[in-house]
Amino acid sequence: MSHNNQKKIALINDFTGFGKCSITVALPVISALKVQCCPIVTSVFSNHTAYPEYFFDDYTEKMQEYIDQWKKLDLKFEGIATGFLGSEEQIEIVCRFISEFKLKETVLIVDPVMGDYGVKYETYTEEMCKKMKKLVSMSDIITPNLTECCILTNTPYRDDMDFATVRKMAEELAGMGPEKIVITGIERNHYINNFVYEKGKKEKIIKSKKIGISRSGTGDLFSAIISADAVNGVGFETSVRKAIHFIKKCIIISEKRDIPTEDGVCFEDVLTTLK
């Protein structure tokens, strides 16, 4: 009996019970796009770290035993997607998982969650940054923000960075391995710009008018749509536009409801519109 008669994505990320981010938002979105989502949990949070207090349980020691059961089932995946990784050991486990499970037709999508607004996350050591570059080199698609691009390419961060420099960073990242890159969340004159780069194609800048302020989980929503669309054969630019439009709808509803920013976005209200 085969367990591989349905499209599947292995999603490697943390599980957060409240605050709408990571697996909690990616799983329903991937499912809505008619792909089975199979999570590998890196850690468990009661609520994410933007809140004053939270419960946290590191799952690193259990990850390999968990993965070994999937080997016994001979699971095969059309996609593998990674999100926040909390240690060098976790990145190594993920690299090993990819080497064991990635087939020629498997699409690897890496969201290199390393920092934001020009600041590297406190958990990210220099050694972790090097290991993340290794993971990026194995990928087909990456979805970094401007800060993460700068970290990966050793480029000094500027929030007013010109697009010629952004293009140069995208080319450098593509030289590491990925065929498709979208650099997200570049703010300019009340617009959010997304720089879309595909090897062999002219780059595109897709912009959307900024609404409200930054909210947790939007990056996870974005990468979930990109991941499911990649498995479903949707064009990269089309997928990026879809993700931008969907997140904008989510933010509009959240602003109308006066949802606290750390609580994320009300994606459930519009999930049935995602196709």
What does this structure look like?
The protein contains 8 helices and 11 strands. The longest helix has 21 residues, at 236-256. By secondary structure, it is α/β, with parallel strands linked by helices. The chain is 39% helix and 23% strand. It has helices spanning 23-32, 60-72, 88-101, 126-138, 146-153, 163-176, 218-231, 236-256; strands at residues 8-18, 36-47, 56-58, 79-82, 107-110, 115-116, 119-120, 141-142, 180-188, 191-198, 204-209. The chain is globular, with a radius of gyration of 18 Å. The protein has one domain (8-267): Ribokinase (UDP-N-acetylmuramoyl-L-alanine:D-glutamate ligase, 3-Layer(aba) Sandwich), CATH 3.40.1190.20. The two termini are 31 Å apart. A 9-stranded mixed sheet has the order 3-2-1-4-5-8-9-10-11, with helices on both faces.
